[in-house]
C-alpha cells in the first residue's frame, strides 16, 4: 500500500505557475501556485 502512494507522488506532473505558466522548481505536492518571480511582484 505504501509503495502505491510513493508511486502516485513520483508520477505527478511538474507544477506550473498559475500566473506565467513557468515550471515551478519545488515539490509537486506543495500548496504554492506561483513561481518565485511572480510571487515577489
TrEMBL record:
InterPro entries reported for this sequence: YhfH-like
Taxonomic superkingdom: Bacteria
One Pfam family here: YhfH
Protein name: Protein YhfH
Organism this protein belongs to: Metaplanococcus flavidus
Gene designation per UniProt: yhfH
Amino acid at each position: 500500500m505504501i509503495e502505491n502512494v510513493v508511486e502516485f507522488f513520483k508520477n505527478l506532473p511538474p507544477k506550473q505557475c498559475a500566473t506565467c505558466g513557468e515550471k515551478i522548481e519545488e515539490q509537486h505536492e506543495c500548496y504554492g501556485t506561483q513561481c518565485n518571480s511572480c510571487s515577489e511582484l
